[in-house]
Specification:
This protein has about 130 residues and is mainly alpha-helical. About 55% of the residues lie in helices and about 10% in strands. It has helices at about 5-10, 25-30, 35-45, 50-60, 65-75, 100-120, and strands spanning about 50, 80-85, 90-95. The protein is globular, with a radius of gyration of 19 Å.
Length: about 130
């Protein structure tokens, strides 16, 4: 257990029983619940440095403004790095930061669980 989190907890309670320890999770989940955020993290994590157009192509019918906003938010949160090259035509690539890689590693078991859970939701229920 992370002792630094216990330092912020209510005295006499551990993070396992003190809901105030989970406040930081709210901000992360709020960002990740936005449209295409998790998908961007997973795509960039699987492909490595990727250009905006490649991300756009992978998503198909996503609006440019939504995708741009999501990329900016993920860069601002420190999950993605944006590198602009001084070339003609201009080239910009996105890649996961160390924090983004850690996030992707933690998302993977959740995504695997979601696939299994989705299969159960589609199965007929017994009455």
């Amino acid at each position: 257990m992370d002792e630094s989190r216990d330092a912020d907890a209510v005295p006499g309670r551990s993070c396992r029983t003190d809901p105030s320890c989970y406040c930081q999770l709210g901000g992360v989940l709020e960002l990740l619940s936005r449209k295409h955020a998790i998908q961007v993290i997973c795509l960039v994590g699987e492909t490595g440095p990727v250009r905006y157009g490649e991300i756009e192509d992978a998503f198909g019918a996503v609006s440019s403004s939504t995708l741009s906003a999501r990329l900016d938010e993920l860069v601002g949160a420190g999950y993605l790095a944006r590198e602009q090259y001084d070339e003609i035509p201009p080239r910009v690539e996105y890649d996961l930061t160390t924090t983004g890689e850690q996030l992707q590693q933690r998302l993977q078991p959740l995504l695997e669980w979601a696939v299994i859970h989705e299969e159960f939701e589609d199965a007929p229920t017994e009455t």
